[in-house]
Design brief:
23% strand, single chain, six-stranded mixed beta sheet, globular, alpha/beta, 39% helix, 249 residues, 8 helices, Rossmann fold, four-stranded antiparallel beta sheet, 10 strands
């Protein structure tokens, strides 16, 4: 479980997040949604420590441990328990699939080469990628790139999985497969999964906990069933506009 308590974030005096409090629940897909510029990406970056929150009463707490108050060296311990799926996959072009997935194992473990290869093969099997070890990112499809990135993100058996726009650039069918995969892995490994997305299909398919950010404030929370019956004006406009855009494509 991740608790976000009264956090704010400003850049050059302009507030981007204002007093956000929410809980991302263990074993669930927790989605952050909102328009471009609403602050959802900033919120995720604050959670994983890429951005410092503004000084004050705000805290980010991982399973009872206050991450935001830790010195940088001690934050590294918690970061070992995080898996991050970056938008676009962010694979190393000059690395093979195997080398990409092995990267965090090389950084954070003292496994033997044989142990690391066994682990790589295990997580690649979990994401339905077998016999792709020696391929390079340029040789595989966009959907396969995302699956390799997911395999890399779960290689260290993380307690927390953060996904930034996991369906960006994918066709609807492949996007649905990625959604299902992330949902299944979340349940199987009992992770606290946080997904930053603007994909309404993802919201309706795997949104077990949804946080809607509007102009830097937490505007609404609920699940995939409740979102279709909310009377929140701004959220309805966001969902309707996003759905029209999706259909137009």
């Amino acid at each position: 479980m991740i608790e976000v308590k009264n956090i704010s974030k400003s850049f050059d005096g302009q507030k981007v997040l204002s007093n956000i409090s929410t809980v991302f629940e263990k074993g669930k897909t927790n989605l952050i949604i909102g328009q471009s510029g609403s602050g959802k990406t900033v919120l995720m970056k604050c959670c994983i420590g890429l951005l410092d929150i503004d000084e004050g009463e705000g805290k980010i707490v991982f399973d009872g441990n206050c991450f935001s108050d830790l010195p940088e060296k001690k934050k590294r311990v918690t970061r070992k328990e995080m898996g991050v799926l970056f938008q676009g996959g962010a694979l190393f072009d000059s690395f093979t699939v195997e080398e990409n997935v092995m990267f965090p194992l090389n950084m954070f473990t003292k496994m033997s080469l044989e142990e690391k290869r066994d682990k790589v093969n295990s997580v690649l099997t979990h994401v339905n990628l077998v016999n792709a070890n020696n391929k390079f990112p340029a040789e595989i499809s966009g959907g396969m790139v995302k699956r390799v990135a997911i395999a890399r993100a779960i290689a260290l058996n993380p307690k927390y999985l953060f996904c930034d726009e996991p369906n960006s650039g994918l066709d609807p069918k492949t996007a649905e497969l990625i959604d299902v995969l992330i949902s299944e892995l979340t349940e199987e490994f009992k992770m606290t999964t946080v997904i930053n997305t603007h994909d309404i299909n993802s919201v309706l398919q795997i949104g077990q906990k949804i946080s809607y950010i509007h102009e830097g404030e937490l505007w609404w929370e609920g699940d995939k069933d409740e979102i279709m019956h909310t009377e929140n004006k701004e959220l309805n406009e966001f969902v309707f506009a996003t759905e029209l855009t999706r259909r137009a494509k």
